Amino acid sequence: MRGFFQDPEAVAALLLAVHIFLVAVAAVLVSVNRRPSSAIAWVLAIIFIPVLGAVAYFFVGYAKLPKVRRDKQREINELVLARTEGSQLISHGDDWPEWLHSAVTLNNNLGALPMVSGNSTQLLPDYNGTFDAMIAEIDVAERYVHVEFYILALDPTTEPFLQALARARERGVAVRVLSDHLAGLMFPARKETIKYLEDAGAEYRPMLPVRPWRGQWQRPDLRNHRKIVVVDGRVGFTGSQNLIDASYNKKSNLKRGLRWHELMMRIEGPAVRELDAVFATDWYSETDVLLSLESGPAVPSQGSALFDAQVLPSGPSFDNDNNLKLYATLIHKAERRVSITSPYFVPDESILMAIVTAAARGLRVDLFVSEVGDQSLVYHAQRSYYEALLRAGVRIYLYRAPQVLHSKHFTIDEEVAVIGSSNMDVRSFSLNMEVSVLVHGRGFVDSIREVEEQYRANSLELQLEDWLRRPVSQKAFDNLARLTASLQ
User: Which residues, 6 or more positions from 93, have their beta carbon under 8 angstroms from its beta carbon?
Assistant: First the structure.
């Protein structure tokens, strides 16, 4: 045996055989229930950088939450479905376009929440004005305030919001607060924020904590990216905005003068109860305490401009990529126009095909993205898709710096819109917990189109000829960055 290990050729042959065996095993394990593009990317990583590739796969290769969390999601789904049965608030879509019925059924089957009628909505495009609107509702809260943000930080901009929570507690109102654990570690004043909430008497829990020493572990980059505020089950807020200053309190952003531009939605009516059910699910996941799923209005909102709305939660606690399936379905169903706003646009193959096909069908397709990016790899991966989109006839608008367009919404034809926390990228489709709201109503779509016109007025339209003339070094970096998108 000693002689064998003294033979370099024999040792090399053995190592090669072991490597081939490990790659074959990895190929089988990696490909189980995974998209082919993602599986191929992981296998190539393991082939060319075997040790680092295997370690990376161990930490971030499995894109589902632990079984206990997925079981809680199924439990909530069953309770919500039982609660929904026979409800008079469910919209039957007498005035919907015919194609919308199947999309609503899809959402109901995926997320367990129905399309409900009688909702009034208001778009909130002003960053600080959104905080003012939420504070105004918190200051009249009588029973509870539910707050859930991916990023929650105490700073001069957000302090009035936290002060409103403290005032609510002084009145005896229950205040429950959730924020993402790892996201909080990346921003200043995490300890001060938590202490402020605790001193105010709010119940605070971090979402998806990564603390192995406490038995709390899942893939570290599976994060809860939702943004939700619900007051008394009467009024709710959701959209793209985090609870932090518009600069995100980062020195690099301040140096570049970057400010985030967001779009939030205020909603009253039966959909608030469905939004609250998403909060209740996340609270149950973190505390084992199941809140009431019945809070919310038993009658529609009053007024003339009322819309049907359906809340769709998505993420690795579900068995399906809920938002991906909804978005692809709606784009394929479009008959005249598709307009998409996404700060991080790294589409799944099915979304890219749906968009390119829509443009080839003669539809008007607009894409609003930022001229600048705060995440280099994502920014360059996104740019790698522009040529194919431009050649297909998609019109791309680059929102001018130093504003960063962080809004997340899209519209289909003249009657259907989706707004929420979800980007149109592989992370939001598969790795992040997100919440979207599907709305049917011409008036609501008109209001989003007005916002889009403001984007257009502050944007540079990208032309194919100009894009093809960009430096070769940029093209190479864009395409290399695109390869990283499949490692999920």
Answer: 100, 101, 104, 115, 308, 440
